[in-house]
Amino acid sequence: MKKSFGLAILLACGATSGASPALAQSFDRNALEDMFGEPVTTSATGQPQRAREVPADMEIVTAEQIRRTGADTLPDVLRFVAGIDVRQYGLQDASVGIRGYDTALNPRVLVLLDGRQVYQDDYGLTVWSLIPVALSSIRQIEIIKGPSAALYGFNAVSGVINIVTYDPLTDKVNGGRVMGGTQNQTYGEAVATAQVPGVAGVRLSAEGFRSTEFTGYGQGDTREQPHSGTAAVDGRFLLGHGIEWDLFGSIGSVDSNYYIDTGTYTPIAFKANSLRSALSADTPIGVLKLDYYRNENRTSEDRAAEQGSGENDHWREDLNVVQASDLFKLGTNNTFRIAGEYRDNSVASLQTFSGRLGYTIVAGSLMWAWQILPQLSLTNVIRVDDLSLSHDGGQFYIPTLGPLYLDARIIEPNFNSGLVYKPTPYDTVRVTAARATQIPVLVDFGFARTYGDAIVAGNTGLRPSEVQNYEVDYDRKLAVLDSTLRLAAFAQRMDATIGSPFGSGETLLPTYQALLRATNFSGSNEAGGEIGITGSSPNGLRWNLSYALAAVRDSTPEDVLSQAATVSFQRQTPTNSVIAGAGYTWRRLDLDVQARWQSHIEDFALDTSTGATAVIVVPDYVTVNLHAAYRINRLFTASVLAEQVNKQQIAETAGLAVDRQFLAGLELRF
Amino acid sequence: MARKTTIPPVPRRGSRPFANWLPAAALLLGSWAPLPNQAPTVQDIQVAGRVLHFQEPPFSGEIVVAIVYDQLLPQSLAEARALAGLLGAGLTVGTLTLQPRLVEQKQLAGPGDFGAIFETVGVSDQLLSAGMRSHRVLCLTRHLDQVEHGACVVAICSEPQVAIVVNEINASAFGLRFATVFRMMVQEI
To answer: Signal peptide location in the record (chain A) (predicted)?
Structure first.
C-alpha cells in the first residue's frame, strides 16, 4: 500500500527517468556512514548520531581495528582501549572494567549485542565467550565510558559496551577463520549471509574455542581444557518502506574455570539461549520501535570432587524484556525519544534460591536533544525504574536474624545530561553529568545455602548503589597529522557499594556459625581521565598513544575492605596505564604492534588452608602483542599473532599467571 | 561578472524564539559550515548522492541531475563543468546512478525529466524557484547562502568534515520530505 502510494507520487511528479522507488530501512547505517564519513551510533541516547556529536565519552573500535589486533576473544580486542581494564584470570575468564572498579566477575559494565543485554543479572557478570558473535561479523564495538543508566536502566554504572554486528540486510559477510597455537589453542569461526536484495537478509554464524588452561598453581579446582561454542542466526526483513523486522536466535555453552568472588577458581558450565524479535517503522509520528527478547542462562558449578553429590550450585535465569519507543523530531531543533520498558528477571533453583526469586521492572524514559545553536546542543535523558522483588518457594531462615526472603521495592530516577559544543569543524567539547543506579544482582538479593558450619545468604534489604558522575571532554582533529587528539577528565562518587554474599567478609553468629552475607558498604570516590592520540597516514602508517588515570578512594574502613573483595575498588584499580601502538601496511602485508603498561593492583585470593582472604599484590607489568597478516589472494589471508611477546609469564591477577601465546591463522573472506 | 539577485524574504512559520539571533550567534561562535571556495570534489558528489537516498520516497536506479548555471557568470559555468566532469557518463552512489545534464538557469523551468538539481554559484533564486516549482525535485548546492537565504533545499560541504544544512521551509514548500533519521542528523533551518 505504502509502496503504491510512493509510486503514485513519483509518477505524478514525473521526476525521474530511470529511477524507481525503493524500499528503505528506518535506520540505514551504511548509507549514513558513507554520507558522513564517520561511524554512526545510536548507543549514546537512542538517537542516531555521528560519533563526534554524541553527548558522552564514546570510543568506537571498528571492524578494521578488530581485524588488526588478530585477537580471537573480545577481551583481547578491548585490552588496548584507553580507560579499559582487562584482567585475565584464565583463557576463557576475563573481567573487563571501564575506568577502574574492575573486580572478578565485574557487575558494573553493561554489555550488549546489538542492543540486547548479554550481561547476566544472576551473578552480575559477562561471560565473554558465551556472547554469540563471530569476530568477523562485528561492524564496530561502541564503548561508553561513564554511567549511562538513563538509557539502559540499572547497572550501566561504569559504562556500556555495545557490540554492533553487520546488518544482514545490507552487508554480505561470508567466510571463516581458523587459528591454532600454543597451549593447544584452537579457534574457529564461520559466517554466511544469504540475501534477497533490498527485501531480506539472513546471517548464520558460529564460533568455537578450545585450549589448555594457563599453567601454574590455581586456587581451587581448575579445569584443564576450557572450551566454548556459540551459534546464532540473525534475519532482517524489510516489510515495507521504512518498516523493518529483525529476528534473532542464539545458543551457546562454555565450560571453563572462573575466578569468583570467593577468591578461588571454580569450574562452571554455562549454557545460554536467546530469542529476539524487533520491529521498527519510520512513520509520520516518528520512528517507532517494539523490541522483545528473552535470555535463558543455565549456570552449573562443576567441581569434580562434588560431582554427583548434589553439592555443586546450579540455577537457571530467565530474562524477558519488552521495550517500546518513539523517536521523533519537533520543529527543526528538538528531537525527543519516549520509551517504556517491562522486564521480568528471575532465577530458579531449589538448592540455592529455595525456589524462584525474581523481580519485575517497569520503566519509562524521555530523551530531549535540543540543538540550541548550530555549534551547540544539549541532550537530557531521564528514566525512572520501578522494581518489585518477590520470592516463590520455601523461606530460608538465618539463625537469630530471621527470614531471608522479604518482598522489596526500589524506585530510582536516573539521568544523563550532555552539552556538546563544536566551535570549529576540528574541535568538540563535551560537558556531561549523570546519575546512575546499580541494583544488587539476584545472587546478592537471595542466594541462600548452608555449607557445613557456614551460611551464605543474600539480602533482600540491600540498597541500590548510586553513582554521580561529572565529566569534561575535548576532541581535536589534527588535520596536518591526520590524527585525532582526545582528552577526558571526570570525577565521580559512588554511594552504598554492594558487596556480594561471597565477597563481603564473614561474621560469627551466636550459633557459632559463620555468616557470609551480601551487604552495603560505604561509598567510593574517583577522579581521572584519559589523553590519547590516534592517527594514520596515506602511506600506510598508523599509530596510537594514550594515558589513563583512575584514582579511586574507598570510604569503607581498611580493616573491612581487606576481607571484602567485591567492594575493595581502590586496591583493584590500576591507577595509571599507558597504551602505545603502531602499524604499517605495505602492499599485501599488515604489521601491527600494541603495548600496554599498567601500574600495580592488589587482588584477592582465598587461602584454602586457613579459610581467610588474602590480599595479593600484582606488580605493574608491560605486555606487548605483535600481529602480522598477509593477503595471499583475494580470498585468503594468513596471520600470525604473538601475545605477550615480551615475557613468558605475567601475573595479571591473584590467580593463574598469563602465559605467552603464539597463534597462527588462516582467514577466508568472500 | 558577479550578479546579485534580489529575492523576497523567506516566510518563517511558527514560533522560533532564536531565529533572529541565531545567525549572529553562529558568526560569533565560529563558522559551522565553511563555504567551499575550491573546486567541487567527488566527495561532494557522493555526499549529494547519499542525501538523495534519504528522500521520501527514496529512489534507486538512474536519475538525471540538472546542473544549473548562469552563462553570464564564469565561476558558475566553471563549477557546472567541474561537476559534470566529476559525474562523467554517470556516477554510482549507493543504489543511485547520477547522470549529469548542464542546464542554463533560464531553461530550468522548461521540460526535462530531472531527478535532482545541483545549483552552482550565482544562479538566480527566482529562476531556481520557478524551476523547482516546475519539476518538484530536490535542489542541492555547495553554497550555504543559497539555502539560508535562497530557494535551494540542501547545502552540502564535505571538507574538512561533512556538513549538511536543510532548509525545512523550502523543502515543505516544494513538497519534499526526508527520512526521520536523516532529519535528526543534519542541521535544519
So the answer is: 1-24
Buried b (16+ CB within 10 A) or exposed e, A522-531: ebbbbebbbb
Q: Mean of the pLDDT values across residues A2-9?
A: 35
CB contact under 8 A, A27 and B181: yes
**8 Å CB contact of B162 and A35:** yes
A28 interaction partners in chain B (CB closer than 8 Å): 53, 181
Residue B90 is part of which domain span? 33-188
Does residue B45 belong to any structural domain of this protein? yes
CATH number reported for the structural domain that contains residue B103 in this entry? 3.40.50.2300
- Domains parsed from chain A with CATH numbers: 24-669 (2.40.170.20)
DSSP A15-39: --SEEEE----SS-HHHHHHHHTS-
Closest CA to B63 of B123, B140, B122: B140
Number of separate domains in chain B: 1
Interface test with chain A among B181, B182, B185, B189, by most A beta carbons within 10 Å: B181
Q: Name the minimum distance, in Å, from the CA of B69 to any CA of chain A.
A: 20
Which of B32, B61, B135 comes nearest A15 by C-beta?
B135
Closest Cβ–Cβ partner in B60, B62, B160 for A425: B160
Q: State whether residue A289 sits within 8 Å of chain B by CB.
A: no
Q: What is the pLDDT along chain B (189 residues), one digit of tens a residue?
A: 333 333 333 333 333 333 333 443 343 334 434 444 578 999 999 999 999 999 988 878 899 999 999 999 999 999 999 999 999 999 999 889 999 999 999 999 888 889 999 999 999 999 999 999 889 999 999 999 999 999 999 999 998 889 999 999 999 999 999 999 999 999 999
Could you give the ipTM of this predicted complex? 0.86
